[in-house]
Design a protein that fits this description.
- The chain is of the alpha+beta class.
- The protein has one domain: Penicillin V Acylase, Chain A.
- It is 30% helix and 27% strand.
- The termini are close together.
- InterPro entries: C45_proenzyme-like, Peptidase_C45, Peptidase_C45_hydrolase.
Length: 353
């Protein structure tokens, strides 16, 4: 498998340190080849970055403690780690985070959420699935980019809350809580309503699309959350979303819509419109691995116009009191299956199916 499963446990700072140590061997080479890091250099020492840090400390002190631990584990200055975790709040067009998400309510009551994690092609085979146990929160399972707090990719926590994230290239820049820290904070929530309230009420400095589901709630939500406003749409039966705002309440906000995002949005809408109540995980996977057209949903091209490739595909099967996550490799379709709500101490380490 192109990603390794790693368990981490402890308090907030200890977890942050462990995440930093996990990424440390790769971090310097990763940033050196990454154009986003170069584009961020002018923001070093900027008062606006200090403002974002202050908003994070005030609104999310526990998450800030994780960020401090992350910096310690990476052996990087905290200001640089904050800068890296604010990349989408500061840069609107040069962040290599794409993604496509789908959702479905099946006839038998099962809720399905699927997601392509698209990012820097350099990271293919260099990311992890981290299973994090916290002393004061439910704990979570998340795809982990080196040096970034988990939560802004695809994840679920042990309260049964599921979240997938799509990048939004909003043109607005407001002082507020950095979007990646806010996405991480969602994984500490225990209900959909709590997660929605957090995203709605927090001051926001960047934009993300969140697909939210729960083992304790029959609803699924599509949330477009940006500095200029937020929209929460309860999904009826089926849904697809790429990397720009499409809700009635938010699509008028200033944003960058790339050719890839526009094409993938049109394609995924066409696919999900053909789904029936009997549709299940196999159809979600087929949609996310669709390679038709010049700018396909499954992104593997070396000359991708957004400099992104699909790093992994996640399929969440959500039933009452049960969440199963299957993570697929884009090349072989080999997968790893995890029961999110089962304490890993009570089961064997997951093996590829």
């Amino acid at each position: 498998m192109p990603y390794k499963y790693v368990r981490i446990a402890g308090n907030r700072r200890q977890v942050g340190v462990a995440l930093g140590k996990l990424a440390r061997p790769l971090m310097a080479a990763y940033l050196e080849q990454n154009g986003t890091w170069e584009a961020l250099r002018p923001w070093r020492g900027h008062s606006y970055l200090d403002q974002l840090g202050q908003f994070a400390r005030d609104a999310l002190p526990a998450i800030w403690e994780e960020l401090e631990g992350l910096a310690e584990g990476l052996r990087m200055p905290l200001a640089d780690v904050l800068l890296w975790n604010c990349r989408g709040d500061l840069l609107h067009s040069s962040t290599g985070d794409g993604c496509t998400s789908v959702a479905l309510k099946a006839a038998d009551g099962t809720r399905w959420i699927g997601h392509n994690e698209d990012g820097d092609p350099y990271l293919y085979g260099r990311c992890h699935l981290v299973d994090v146990a916290l002393e004061d929160a439910p704990g979570y399972l998340s795809f982990y980019y080196p040096g970034s707090l988990p939560g802004h990719t695809f994840a679920a926590n042990r309260a049964g809350l599921v979240q997938t994230i799509n990048n939004l290239r909003t043109r607005q820049r407001h002082p507020g809580v950095p979007r990646m820290l806010l996405a991480r904070a969602v994984l500490d929530c225990t209900t959909l309503d709590e997660a929605i309230a957090l995203l709605r009420d927090a001051p926001r400095s960047g934009g993300f699309h969140h697909t939210l589901g729960s083992a304790a709630d029959p609803r699924i939500f599509s949330a477009e959350v940006a500095p200029g406003g937020a929209s929460f749409l309860e999904i009826g039966t089926r849904y697809g979303h790429a990397n720009h705002m499409i809700h009635q309440e938010t699509r008028g906000q200033a944003q960058i819509i790339t050719d890839s995002s526009r094409t993938r949005q049109n394609r995924i809408e066409g696919i999900v419109d053909g789904w029936s109540p009997a549709t299940g995980g196999a159809e979600l996977l087929a949609a996310l691995h669709d390679a038709s057209g010049d700018l396909p949903i499954l992104r593997t091209a070396k000359d991708d116009p957004d400099d992104e490739n699909t790093l992994a595909t996640a399929i969440f099967e959500i039933r009452d009191d049960e969440v199963t996550l299957r993570v697929y490799d884009r090349k072989t379709r080999a997968d790893i299956a995890l029961d999110v709500m089962t304490d890993p101490d009570d089961e064997k380490k997951p093996d590829p199916a």
